[in-house]
Design a protein that fits this description.
- By secondary structure, the protein is α/β, with parallel strands linked by helices.
- The chain has 9 helices and 11 strands.
- It has a single domain, classed as 3-Layer(aba) Sandwich (Aminopeptidase).
- 29% of the residues lie in helices and 16% in strands.
- Helix 7 runs antiparallel to helix 9.
- The longest helix is centred in the middle third of the chain and has 30 residues.
- 43% of the residues are buried.
Length: 297
């Protein structure tokens, strides 16, 4: 089977997909920022890595694991561009100055742990630590990716959160991710051995306790080994959108890929259907949280 990613011309790159429910009936929004696999041809040509190695950074199939969101009454947004091209789960400008031929503007965050790990808004490495580029980039290239991919993604995500707040007075944003079974060079560290799912709520600051507790209870009842905030406490999306004081709750969900896919062949595994069914139960559990637990004080 051909595992080469889909290559598209830069001018034809679709940025995002939004799956909308027939009726927005529950105060939830789901986001999959890292499952995109449309690779700009110019980006593939500029990388020293083969196309399959570039895919190691993808959260493959995560948008399908949470695919029941729309049928359950909640929108799901998915980035179609790959995180190796630009990462929407970072600040707009987390950039490594060593990657660029020209000086970076003063407003760029060059010292974050994500940048140090090589995984800023424009990544230096893929998930196995391999260097992506054989040349230095120009800042204009980063600006182009941020303006054409990153900003439209967050503009639409913010609009979905705002619409949910207007409709229900509160919103639970679930940021959906996967983690390789062997770990990755992330700033947060590596997933502990044997862990199936990591729930990140920024140590209780990005959502009401009822949200994390409902998710953990649901998953543990289905015999998943669940931990909170170790090693993934939540990325930019969780920190930026999670403001429980005004009724916006954000929870990051990291799923071990061995549960549902072949990480070498980039194919769905035998556990995919069962996990998808269990994620649908998780969606229902989050939707069942009493509204008074989610509304601002």
């Amino acid at each position: 089977m051909d595992h080469t990613p889909k290559a598209v011309h830069d001018n034809d790159l679709a940025v995002l997909e939004v799956r909308l429910p027939a009726e927005h009936s529950i105060p939830l929004v789901f986001a999959s920022p890292h499952s995109g696999c449309d690779y700009p041809a110019e980006f593939l040509a500029s990388s020293v890595l083969d196309p399959v190695t570039l895919r190691r950074s993808e959260d493959s199939f995560v948008h399908d694991l949470f695919g029941a969101a729309a049928s359950r009454g909640a929108p799901l947004i998915r980035a179609l561009f790959p995180r190796a091209y630009v990462d929407p789960n970072r600040e707009p400008y987390e950039l490594d100055p060593a990657m660029f031929a020209d000086p970076l503007p003063e407003y760029v965050n060059t010292r974050s742990p994500r940048v140090a790990a090589g995984l800023g808004t424009i990544a230096r490495v893929v998930a196995n630590g391999a260097q992506i580029y054989g040349r230095k980039l120009r800042f204009a290239e980063a600006e182009h990716r941020i303006n054409t991919c990153y900003r439209p993604y967050h503009s639409r995500l913010q609009a979905l959160v705002d619409a949910t707040m207007r409709r229900f007075g509160c919103c639970v944003l679930v940021d959906c991710h996967s983690m390789p079974s062997s770990g990755r060079p992330m700033d947060e560290g590596r997933a502990p051995g044997g862990v199936d799912i990591v729930l990140g709520d920024c140590f209780g600051t990005s959502c009401a306790s009822a949200v994390s507790e409902a998710a953990e209870k649901c998953l543990r009842e289905r015999r998943y080994r669940v931990v909170r905030n170790a090693p993934y406490a939540g990325g930019f999306t969780t920190r930026h959108y999670g403001r429980p004081g005004i009724g916006v709750h954000a929870l990051q969900v990291e799923i071990n890929r061995r549960l549902y896919m072949d990480e070498i062949a980039f194919e769905r595994g035998p556990g995919f259907r069962q996990l998808t069914d269990h994620i649908t139960v998780l969606i229902d559990a989050l939707a069942a949280i009493p509204r008074e637990e989610l509304l601002p004080p």
